[in-house]
Amino acid sequence: MEGGISAGTAAAQVFRAKKVALRDGRTAMIRRAGPRDAEAVIAHVNAVGAEGIHIMTEKLRRTPREEKVVFRNADGRAGLYIVASVDGEIVGSADIERGRQTKNRHTASLGIAIRKDSRGLGLGLAMMRTLIAWARSVGIRKVTLGVFASNTPALALYRRLGFTEEGRLRGQVILRTKPVDEILLALWP
Ligand SMILES: CC(C)(COP(=O)(O)OP(=O)(O)OC[C@H]1O[C@@H](n2cnc3c(N)ncnc32)[C@H](O)[C@@H]1OP(=O)(O)O)[C@@H](O)C(=O)NCCC(=O)NCCS
Predict the structure, then answer these.
(1) Residue 145 lies in a domain
(2) What pLDDT does 5 receive?
């Protein structure tokens, strides 16, 4: 790539919690995941996973103790792990992890999950914008993700943010007995 990559020297970013007004009148707080969130985040991701059609994860195999390490590793330099809470309950989680090798430190991959009863209210957009702003702030040049071709809401969200298709793994997953492609999307923020 031309212009050189300075991403390797990027400093950790201080992350400030922020409030988001949801379309149903509630207020969500987006903040970094902390040790006390470990159990709730595992339960949250598992609930979305149990729906069976949106995300690759079916059940997280990490213990709360291991989850805390994941949060700690997302230190604002190597990555960022955020949660959204409403009245103290976790309704969304999202994380972004930068490539660990010299070769791919200019890239990062992300994942997001909003609880079923809190979708379509603007939270996914706010959390994605938070992750992308972080990526930009630490010099990441390319953000990638995989999405199932059947996941219309997620595809619409990503395209709205400027993600474009870079590839397609045909029949990569079987969802409710049907083969579905995984689409690889990227954003050069
Ligand atoms: C996909 C997901 C992250 C979107 O988050 P969300 O909070 O529901 O989305 P938002 O309300 O912020 O919507 C943002 C934009 O996404 C698109 N969108 C969201 N839901 C949509 C739907 N049901 N149909 C079409 N477009 C949709 C729209 O462009 C929307 O903007 P608009 O409301 O101004 O039209 C969320 O639905 C989710 O977590 N789903 C389950 C897990 C999952 O699929 N994770 C992603 C795996 S790749």
Answers:
(1) no
(2) 40
> What is the three-class DSSP state of 144?
strand
CA–CA distance, 118 with 51 (Å, rounded to integer): 15
pTM of the predicted structure, to 2 decimals: 0.94
Domain extent, residue 90, equals 13-140
- Phi/psi class of residue 4: alpha, beta or left (left: φ > 0; alpha: ψ in -120 to 50)? left
**Is the CB of residue 154 below 6 angstroms from any atom belonging to ligand 1?**
yes
Instruction: Considering only the C-alpha atoms of the chain, give the largest distance between any 2 of them, rounded to a whole number of Å.
Output: 47
Over residues 137-166, the pLDDT tens digits come to 999 999 999 999 999 999 999 999 999 999
CATH number of the domain bearing residue 96:
3.40.630.30
Which residue, by CA, sits nearest to atom 16 of ligand 1? Answer: 157
As for how many domains the chain has, the answer is 1
Whether 148 is covered by a domain: the verdict is no
pLDDT at 8: 46
Nearest residue (by CA) to ligand 1, atom 44, is 54
Helix (H) or strand (E) holding 145: strand 142-148
The answer, yes or no, to whether any atom of ligand 1 lies below 6 A from the CB of 79, is no
Kindly give the distance from the C-alpha atom of residue 82 to the centroid of ligand 1, in angstroms, as a whole number: 17
